[in-house]
Amino acid sequence: MTVTAVLGAGKIGEALLAGLLQGGRGPEELLFTERHPERAAELTERYGIAGVEVGEAAKRADVLVVAVKPQDIEPVLAELAPLVGPGSLVVSLCAGLPTSLYERRLPDGVPVVRVMPNTPMVVGEAMSAVSPGRYATPEHVALVKEMLATVGEVVEVPESQQDAVTALSGSGPAYFFFLVEAMIDAGILLGLPRAVAEKLIIQSAVGAAKMLAETSEHPVILREAVTSPAGTTINAIRELEKHGVRAALLAAIEAARDRSVELGKAHE
Fold first, then answer.
1. I want to staple 150 with a disulfide (CB 3.0 to 4.6 A). Which of 23, 57, 77, 109 is the partner?
2. pLDDT value at position 47?
3. What are the residue boundaries of the Pyrroline-5-carboxylate reductase catalytic N-terminal domain, all occurrences included (predicted)?
4. Single pTM value for the model
5. How high is the pLDDT of residue 265?
C-alpha cells in the first residue's frame, strides 16, 4: 500500500484528496496536514482521512505532496529534511519553486517531481503539468501522473517550461473568469437582468470550451464560423483589436511568467 500525504489542505490539497478517494484510494492510504484545527477536524469528518503533523506525515507516507503557499515553503522543508530519504517521493504543487530548491534543502537522492496544477481541480477538471527533478525516475513520474489523472488532464514538460505553464494554465482560469465577469457586466449595460446575463455567458463559455476540446478545430476556424461578413461579431472583433485586447493578453501572460521566475529566485 502506497501512503500519500498532502501537506497543506487548502482548496487544491482538498481537491486532490477528494479526487484520490474518487479514484479508488482508501482513507487509510491518505493523510493530510493543516495548521488550523477546526479545518482539520472538518476535513477528517468529511473524508475520513487523518490529519497529522508534518513530521508524522513524513514518517508514515511514501509520497509527500507539498501544497503550501510558496512563501511558506522554508519551514516545511526544514521539518522534512531530517525525516525523508531516497525512499520518499516529494511532489511539489508550489508555484514557481524549482526542484533544485527541494534538492538543496533535502538529503541527497530524494526524488522530486514539480507540478503546476490549476483550480478547476476542485471540479475534477484540472490541467496539470509535471516535470521530474534530478533524482526522479520514469516510475516516479508515472505515479504522479496516475495520481493527478484522478482530478483532470496531465502533461509532462521540461522543467524549463514550468514558468510558462504557470503563467498560461496555472493562472489561466483567472483570465477566463475576468473575461466572463466583463461580459456579464456588458450584458447588464445592454439592459439584461444579471441572472440572465450570467446564464447566457456561462453556458456560452461551457459550450465554446467543449467545442474546442471535442472538434479539434483551431480556435481561428471556430471563431471564423461565427463571424459573418458585415455582421455583429466582426464589428465586435474590430473593437477588441482596436483596444489591444490580444496584445494585453500577451503582456499579461508574460508578466505572470516573470512573477513565477521571481518566486523561484526568492529562495536561491
1. 23
2. 97
3. 5-96
4. 0.91
5. 87
Which residues share a beta bridge with 128?
154
Locus of grid cell 511539489: 92
User: What pLDDT score was predicted for residue 134?
Assistant: 96
Q: Are 67 and 93 in contact (CB under 8 A)?
A: yes
Beta bridge partners of 154: 128
Cα-based torsion angle of the residue sequence 73, 77, 79, 82 in order, rounded to the nearest 10 degrees? 180
d(CA 250, CA 261) in angstroms, rounded, equals: 17
